[in-house]
Amino acid sequence: MSSGPYLHGHHASVLRSHSWRTVDNSCPHLLPHLNNPSLRILDAGCGPGTISVDLAARIPLGSVLAIDPSVEVIEKARRHAEEKGVTNVRFEVGDIFNWNAIEGIEEGGFDIVHAHQVLQHLQDPLCAMKEMKKLTRKGGIVAVRDCDFSAMNHYPPHEGMSKWLDLYRSTAKSIKCDPDIGKRLHAIAMQAGFLRDDIDVSVSAWTFSTPAERAWWCGLWAERSTKSDYKARVLESGLGTEEDLEEIARTWREMEGKEDGWFAVINGEVVAHNRV
Ligand SMILES: C[S@@+](CC[C@H](N)C(=O)[O-])C[C@H]1O[C@@H](n2cnc3c(N)ncnc32)[C@H](O)[C@@H]1O
């Protein structure tokens, strides 16, 4: 199994959203499991590494290995760790399906194997979950969190938002990814061999409503629609045109301007205990 194309790519508008992420705002399900300072954590699909560095800072006697197939984003993540002065995190270019190629990684070698907003971008998330389970020691956990695009919500109503959502979801599906995966992470864990009783399931949301939050969230989607790799994927798929994407960007700008604007991103979370 190899990695398919990553729908968004790593344009500045994409990295702006990933680099905002911290353990507090993106890993509430992990917090109860971080009380041992000597943990060994694998962060699979780490992107620009802000979560990985935050995790490492919380386990001063432990270590984080963070992997991502993108050379560019791994360089950025290394710079971020340097700027933060965090030294117990190692960033390597690597693929969860081909972890054997990464130095210092072995079966059962981690207490926590974590992937945030990654499974939705994989063509074979079940295979990825099985690999994550293999890498977790007995008694350790696999922790995943992904949003569910079918559960995205906003206010006030705007016809253009349905167009955005329909196009996004159909484009993700056209490259055989599941944009709605957040609701079935537990089912994937069960298929990967975890017992239902060993799987903790939760949901948490990101909300964007203040002027600054709206400017950030709407602005990045307006830019992503017209500048990132997502645009190229839409055009390649034939599901939308350049004009459609321009119109979607205008919709996002209009939503940004709505003083009573509100956006909710629902995230499914799973902590699967590796007992068998
Ligand atoms: C939405 S980003 C999430 C980044 C980071 N976890 C975060 O939440 O900020 C998804 C990341 O998964 C990476 N990715 C895609 N395929 C992968 C694979 N086969 N193995 C590991 N990472 C992969 C992409 O390069 C991208 O950086």
Automatic annotation (TrEMBL):
<keyword id="KW-0808">Transferase</keyword>
<feature type="domain" description="Methyltransferase">
    <location>
        <begin position="37"/>
        <end position="176"/>
    </location>
</feature>
<dbReference type="GO" id="GO:0032259">
    <property type="term" value="P:methylation"/>
</dbReference>
<dbReference type="Pfam" id="PF13847">
    <property type="entry name" value="Methyltransf_31"/>
</dbReference>
<dbReference type="GO" id="GO:0008168">
    <property type="term" value="F:methyltransferase activity"/>
</dbReference>
<keyword id="KW-0489">Methyltransferase</keyword>
<protein>
    <submittedName>
        <fullName>Methyltransferase UbiE</fullName>
    </submittedName>
</protein>
<dbReference type="InterPro" id="IPR029063">
    <property type="entry name" value="SAM-dependent_MTases_sf"/>
</dbReference>
<dbReference type="InterPro" id="IPR025714">
    <property type="entry name" value="Methyltranfer_dom"/>
</dbReference>
